[in-house]
Input
Amino acid sequence: MGLLSNILYDTIYHSTPIILCVIGGMFAYKANVLNIALEGMMLNGAFVATLVMFFSGSLPLSIFLAVLSTLVYGFIFSILGISYRGNVIVVGLAINLITSAIAGFVMQIMGTANITLQNVNIANYKIHIPLIGKVPLLGSIISGHPPITYLAFIGIACSYVLMYKTRFGIYVRVAGENEDSASSLGIKVNYYKYAAVLIGAFCCALAGVNLSVERLGLYTNDMTAGRGFIAIAAIYCGQGRPVLSSMYAILFGVARALAVNLSIYAGPASGLFDIIPYIIMVAVLAIVSGVKYKNIKERGLGSAM
Output
């Protein structure tokens, strides 16, 4: 029971930053913008939040500046990729590389390989829910997470409402499906594409804060470890649908939780379990792609007949 409880708790723990990136990235997906910079945006949020927290000790200020600086990257991505119609893959890769390089440069000046928040006790960020926390098994799984974790799961419902129940979400989807038709209807296509990318930047910044300050109390370069790319995979597997894409994000969180907990019993072979999330990611992508190809092929044969 203890192992099961730990795996389920860690599933929520490891799913949170991926879910936040999924929530943000799916708006760009629906706007027909491939935001491959999710990884770099999340890394920037983690770095800036930890750096500001290290020098100021103020959590609100660190979150504010992490969000603000990540929005700047969102603007740069939008200007180059949307207004000037540059190659979004090249622009995204450049942002991913430059965020890591800037963080490495700053830490080299500081003479350290990691920024450790010795003045922060991450246990203080955990919220113990009064009633649910006393429920056997359920309490140990749901209670005791930091605030952004709960915001991430609430954000799934909010993103669904924003995407499908508001004029903004409809315009984002119309702009992504057919730009010419959207323009003919008077929809400002670039405005909604910018907004979609900036929502992604905002959510990635929160994911970075959760990953560095709330969970570990430190920053080390490239600590995002491909979570932004996993989020992109989840978005494409879920076709940009808030709930389905988030379920894929949770699936990758399950894989990571299994890897962490099972490695405890594996001894010297524990390192092998680190590849579980990536194997599952490749397997899920292959299965989803295979199913899509089969459906397209069947529809094609049907029309030919």
